[in-house]
Amino acid sequence: MRSNLRRTVWPRAVVTPRPWNTDEPGYPAASRYVRTFWTAALGPGAVADLLRLATAAARGRSLRRPLGLSRLCEAGLAREVNGHLEVRTVIPPVGGPVLRSLHPAVRRLHEEDRWRDEIEPRSAA
C-alpha cells in the first residue's frame, strides 16, 4: 500500500538528536544573531528546524526528522555520525561564502559591532 502513496505523505522517521559540542565560540541557537543572519542564509524553515533540533538535543527528546536537515548539514550546523544525529547548540558566526551570499544590506548589518556582546564560548557539557 505504501508504494501507492506519494513520498511526501510517508511518515518521517523519528530522531533523537544529541548536542554537537565544539570548543568554538558562538551564539545560543535561539539568539537574535542566529534568527537574523542564519535565517537570511538558510531560510526560515531550516532555522526553525535548527531551533527544534537544538531544543530536543538539550532536553534529550525525540522528534520527526526535519525536512531542512540536509541544509543544516551542508552549513555545518548538524551532522550524522555513526547513525546518530548531532546538532550544534552553540552556533558559529556566519562566515566565508555563506556571508558573501547574503544581501548587501544584511552583510552591512552583520559588520556592525553590536553582535559581539551576544557571543559566548562553548561551555563543557
Computed Rg: 16 Å
Provide the succession of SSEs. Answer: EEEHHEHEEEHH
Helix % is 25-40%
Helical segment tally?
A: 5
Poorly predicted ranges = none
Structural class: alpha+beta
Q: Kindly state the mean pLDDT as a whole number?
A: 87
Please state how the strands of the largest beta sheet are arranged side by side: 2-6-5
Oligomer: single chain
**Largest beta-sheet characterization:** 3 strands, mixed
Terminal CA distance: 45 Å
Outline: globular
How large is the share of residues in beta strands? 5-15%
**E-strand count:** 7
Short description:
37% of the residues lie in helices and 14% in strands. The protein contains five helices and seven strands. 23% of the residues are buried.
Report on the structure:
- This protein is an alpha+beta fold and 125 residues long.
- Helices cover 37% and strands 14% of the residues.
- The protein has five helices and seven strands.
- The chain has helices spanning 32-42, 44-59, 69-74, 96-100, 104-111, and strands at 14-15, 18-19, 27-28, 63-64, 78-81, 84-87, 90-91.
- The chain has a three-stranded mixed beta sheet with strand order 2-6-5. A two-stranded antiparallel sheet has the order 1-4. A two-stranded antiparallel ribbon has the order 3-7.
- Helix 1 (32-42) crosses helix 2.
- The radius of gyration is 16 Å and the shape is globular.
- The N and C termini lie far apart (45 Å).
Helix/strand layout:
Elements (H helix, E strand, L loop, with lengths): L13 E2 L2 E2 L7 E2 L3 H11 L1 H16 L3 E2 L4 H6 L3 E4 L2 E4 L2 E2 L4 H5 L3 H8 L14
